[in-house]
Design brief:
The protein is globular. It is about 80% helix and about 0% strand. The longest helix has about 50 residues. It starts with a helix and ends in a 13-residue tail after the last helix. It has one domain: Up-down Bundle (Sodium/glucose cotransporter), CATH 1.20.1730.10.
């Protein structure tokens, strides 16, 4: 009964916060959070959007399978990539959005630089596919973990969480996403620290013993390179990063918020690394996908299950809401950018997105392999976006680089399957595409 009381209080808080901020909200508040968010809002939303239940499962599983080598390359790549995005890309994105006015989608930035509507449609189409993939991961990951502990059935957990996220997005849109992310990011970080501390305190191994644990499989050099590249480039491939830059109060706010978000993200990855190592030391015969669940079930006292469930719900909703709004807003504003009722259109598409994702999640319930493929999908648009942020305005190069990345992903899946090394072929395809150049492009903005 205590578990359901915890969840009830948490859900009421989230919906109450969203409803409160929906009062007197404008169209700009709903679609891009008023473009006046401070650095702490940007930090919290960036962190909460990056850390979900699929993150808990995947990073723990990487560590369980490969040892520290499964996550340390990711951390190194992320430190470099997030720093470059924060100090170089974020201020430029905000400045471009200020000059161009009324940027809502990732494709708006591309349209502004290339002066070509086809590039905007291509970018937003890719974005919708990528972010929809991560909606599935959020919903499936959270529902599977909750169901494993017999707290709710998989189907009930899936419908319940999807409904809650849908409700508060319908109230306040992107403003709700950012405001609730502030609350949920604090919950995730504090509860994860407490839970990992309890796991390690119940374990019989010291930290040096855990680090020295023999992994199930030696990681290959190509996979290490793939993980580093993913950590460094993936930040450029997700639309919510661009929307957060648009929503920031100014360029310096975008820069500081994005940079500071790296700190809690690295902390979370390191915490999950020790969870994976604890599971490996206790039992080296698990299904890799179940390392996180095993650690929670066998190394955590049942008295902490209410806290654990709140953590799951926070992780699920904080990442799902970001991706749901990104898909809905990009779909709505890509195909009817001048519609007078943008908010109403976005609300209707939000409902359709949640219903579709929930329906698919009933049947598609894998996690780790899906995460690897989804990560590679991010890279398909990362190199083209770096080219755009560098003020590269050639339409042909952008389109060829994007399609080259997609081709590399398809070939990589055929050759390597769902392995981190497929990022190498995605990257190669994207870079080769940059060699193509169309003839008649001029800067739209002078």
């Amino acid at each position: 009964m205590a578990i359901y009381i915890f969840i009830g209080i948490y859900v009421m808080l989230i919906i109450g916060i969203s409803y409160f901020y929906s009062k007197n909200s404008s169209e700009e508040d709903y679609l891009i959070s008023g473009r006046d968010r401070n650095q702490w809002n940007i930090l919290a939303s960036k962190f909460a959007g990056a850390v979900g239940v699929s993150t808990f499962i995947t990073y723990t599983s990487y560590t369980y399978k490969f040892g520290p080598s499964g996550v340390l390359p990711l951390i190194l790549g992320a430190v470099v990539g997030y720093s470059v995005f924060a100090f170089w890309a974020a201020p430029k994105i905000k400045q471009f959005s200020t000059i161009g006015k009324q940027f809502y989608t990732q494709g708006d930035l591309v349209r502004f630089i290339t002066n070509n509507n086809n590039t905007r449609l291509l970018t937003n189409s890719m974005t919708i596919c990528i972010q929809f993939f991560w909606i599935l991961l959020s919903l499936v990951g959270g529902a599977k973990v909750i169901a494993y502990f017999d707290l709710l059935s998989y189907e009930t957990a899936l419908i319940f969480t999807a409904t809650i996220v849908l409700l508060y997005i319908l109230f306040s849109g992107f403003k709700a996403v950012i405001i609730t992310d502030v609350f949920q990011s604090i919950i995730i970080l504090i509860l994860l620290v407490i839970i990992v501390y309890k796991v390690l305190s119940n374990d019989h191994f010291s930290i040096p013993d855990l680090i020295a644990a023999q992994p199930l499989e030696a990681i290959q050099t190509k996979d290490i390179i793939g993980l580093m590249l993913y950590g460094g480039l993936s930040v450029f491939g997700l639309a919510d990063r661009y929307q957060l830059c648009y929503a920031a109060k100014d360029a310096n706010t975008a820069k500081r918020g994005m940079a500071l978000a790296l700190i809690p993200i690295v902390i979370v990855v390191l915490l999950l690394m020790f969870v994976g190592l604890s599971a490996l030391k206790q039992n080296n015969a698990l299904d890799v996908d179940n390392a996180f669940i095993y650690a929670m079930e066998n190394l955590l006292s049942p008295s902490f299950y209410p806290v654990l469930l709140v953590l799951f719900f926070a992780g699920l909703m904080s990442s799902a809401d970001t991706n749901i709004f990104a898909v809905a807003s990009h779909a709505s504003l890509s195909f009817a950018p001048d519609a007078p009722n943008k908010v109403q259109n976005t609300r209707w598409i939000t409902v359709l997105v949640v219903v579709l994702a929930t329906s698919i999640a009933f049947f598609w319930q894998s996690i780790v392999d899906i995460t690897i493929v989804g990560a590679a999908m991010r890279i398909t648009i990362a190199i083209p976006m770096i080219y755009i942020i560098s003020r590269g305005n050639n339409t042909g190069r952008f389109i060829a680089s994007t399609l080259g990345g997609v081709s590399g992903l398809a070939i990589g899946l055929i050759i390597f399957g769902a392995a981190p090394s497929i990022v190498l072929l995605v990257l190669l395809g994207s870079i080769l595409g940059l060699f193509y150049k169309s003839k008649n492009d001029t800067l739209f903005w002078g």
